[in-house]
Hints:
CATH architecture: 3-Layer(aba) Sandwich
Mean pLDDT: 91
Structural class: alpha/beta
Protein name: ATP-binding cassette domain-containing protein
Helix content: 25-40%
Distance between the termini: 35 Å
Strand order of the largest sheet: 5-6-7-3-8-9
GO molecular function, one term: ATP hydrolysis activity
Number of helices: 8
Number of domains: 1
InterPro entries: AAA+_ATPase, ABC_transporter-like_ATP-bd, ABC_transporter-like_CS, ABC_transporter_ATP-bind, P-loop_NTPase
Pfam family, one: ABC_tran
Family: Belongs to the ABC transporter superfamily.
Strand content: 15-25%
CATH topology: Rossmann fold
Amino acid sequence: MSFLQLRDVSFGYRGFAPVVDRVTLEVDAGSVHCLVGRSGCGKTTLLKLAAGLLPPSRGGVLWRGLPPSDTRQVGFVFQAPTLLDWLTARDNVLLPVSLQRKPTAADGEAAGALLAQLGLGELAQRHPRQLSGGQQSRVALARALLLQPPLLLLDEPFAALDALTREELQRDLLQLVRARGTTVVFVTHDIHEAVFLGDRVSVMDQGRIVRTIDVDRAASVRDSAGFAAACASVRDALAGEGALA
């Protein structure tokens, strides 16, 4: 069953070519759908349209068959963790609650549990400046998941991290969203990251989705022949559309 549907969606500015051009996309509930493509191809704008943060100039966006109505149902993680320096890691995770009401003891326990799941249980009282880049990214992920949103949108959240930390965070992300049944749309430039994370990978070029590739989850082991084949399929799609920078 689809959680997210984009039907013939376009977005642009008067006098310019569309940023997103007649995109139709379905994301199954509880699945991870990755978007890859060169810079400026429309990936981030498509993410904002999916979240209901931008109104499409054409077409429609549906969540569970209905127009987006409450952006609190969406969790966001961006490339920069955007943590507040004067708050501890725990209080940064609690921020989505603090902006609405005073956090309860149960909220604090939920924040602590998420940090513990991400290996930061003993660092909950540290401030962002006392954390590494990878640790800050984990805090941002915990914050996005605190309210248990059914939809999680991530815009190159691990791009600035070293390779080993990226792989650790990719595994952490999959473990958390699979346990919660969260629907995920993940934007990345990294073909290997897209294939490792995604149940499906869509290639974007000049505002359009030019190809969508189903990934066999059994092939997601990085050193398997299936993983290499899936990566090759995505690379061929990128190169074939001139989408590889």
